């Protein structure tokens, strides 16, 4: 192989290895816009958690994380199947719960919705994350995305699971009444044994509950393995929601451009 060809391939290989997965993400076309908000084809608002259309249907009387129903029951797909695979691989319930937690913690990189989608808020369903993980090895999301993914995978693996809302935060709960590794065991409606699953930190273990939420009033909803039903597609033009800043183009960091330029300069000097 000629030397000049090797030198050109090298920077391209570096870019391929070092580029974040989100650069190569495939945009979805399942969304429409109304009143400045983005809705999916279940007519769930992905950009707001509050109200009848919100992805968590937060109201003064409580909340209902309706978005999990896009990945449960008859809608069960990739995330649920991952949970089922963990159930086949790990017969010990505690180990199974820990492995599922580690999967979400290690395969989803905490990224703000503003950074990823150019929305102050944008919730992803469990299968969107699972498909991205399957295709790219990692996905990107924030607290409600971790919570939804964990809740669905735990249901697929045979656990009872819940989503918990704290001030400005969401997490998952899993029912493990004999688990002794947690820093806090919670009671939900008088039933003890619920364990906090906080996967947003890279080193968090299952059962670690942030200190700021200890003694705080929390809202909890136990997830049922039930699907929600799609209605008729709205007669509205589809919009594209694209990760990594909301643009469908490829964004290359200046850091990588500098690497390529330095390698090319080195190439030309050697050729002289």
What does this structure look like?
- The structure is a single chain.
- The protein has 272 residues and is of the alpha+beta class.
- It has a domain at 31-160.
- 33% of the residues lie in helices and 17% in strands.
- The protein is built from 7 helices and 10 strands.
- The strands form 3 sheets. It has a 5-stranded antiparallel beta sheet with strand order 7-8-6-5-9. Strands 2-1-10 form a 3-stranded antiparallel beta sheet, with no helix packed on it. The protein has a two-stranded parallel sheet with strand order 3-4.
- A hairpin with a 2-residue loop joins β5 (161-166) and β6 (169-175).
- α2 (78-89) packs across α3 and α2 (78-89) crosses α5.
- The longest helix has 18 residues, at 254-271.
- Mean pLDDT is 82; it is low at 1-29 and 245-271.
Which key terms come to mind for this protein?
globular; three-stranded antiparallel beta sheet; disordered N terminus; alpha+beta; 272 residues; single chain
What's the rounded overall pLDDT mean? 82
Indicate the structural class: alpha+beta
Helix content: 25-40%
> In terms of per-residue confidence, which ranges show pLDDT below 50 for 5 or more consecutive residues?
1-29, 245-271
Annotation field: number of helices:
7
General shape: globular
For the secondary structure, the number of strands is 10
> How would a textbook summarize the main sheet?
5 strands, antiparallel
Query: Termini distance?
Result: 19 Å
Percent of residues in beta strands: 15-25%
From the structure provided, what is the oligomeric state, counting identical versus distinct chains? single chain
- Order of SSEs: HEEHHEHHEHEEEEEEH
In which order are the strands of the major sheet placed?
7-8-6-5-9
- Nearest-angstrom radius of gyration? 21 Å
């Amino acid at each position: 192989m000629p030397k000049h060809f090797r030198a050109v391939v090298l920077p391209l290989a570096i870019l391929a290895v070092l580029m974040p997965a989100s650069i190569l993400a495939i945009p979805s076309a399942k969304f429409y816009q109304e009143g400045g908000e983005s809705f999916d084809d279940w007519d769930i608002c992905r950009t707001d958690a509050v109200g009848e259309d919100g992805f968590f249907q937060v109201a003064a009387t409580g909340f209902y994380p309706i978005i999990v129903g896009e990945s449960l029951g008859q809608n069960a797909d990739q995330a649920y199947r991952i949970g089922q695979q963990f159930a086949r691989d790990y017969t010990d319930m505690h180990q199974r719960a820990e492995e599922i937690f580690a999967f979400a913690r290690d395969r989803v990189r905490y990224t703000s919705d503003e950074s990823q989608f150019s929305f102050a808020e944008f919730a992803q369903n469990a299968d969107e994350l699972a498909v991205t993980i399957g295709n790219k090895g990692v996905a990107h999301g924030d607290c409600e995305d971790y919570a939804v993914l964990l809740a669905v995978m735990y249901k697929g693996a045979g656990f009872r699971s819940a989503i918990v809302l704290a001030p400005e935060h969401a997490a998952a709960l899993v029912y493990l009444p004999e688990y002794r590794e947690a820093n806090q065991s919670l009671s939900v409606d008088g039933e003890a044994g619920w364990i906090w699953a906080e996967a947003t930190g890279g080193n968090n273990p299952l059962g670690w509950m942030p200190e700021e939420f200890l003694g705080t009033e929390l809202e909890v909803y136990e997830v049922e393995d039930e699907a929600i039903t799609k209605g008729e597609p709205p007669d509205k033009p589809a919009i594209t929601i694209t990760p990594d800043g909301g643009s469908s183009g490829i964004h290359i960091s200046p850091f990588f451009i500098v690497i390529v330029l330095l390698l090319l300069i080195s190439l030309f000097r050697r050729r002289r």
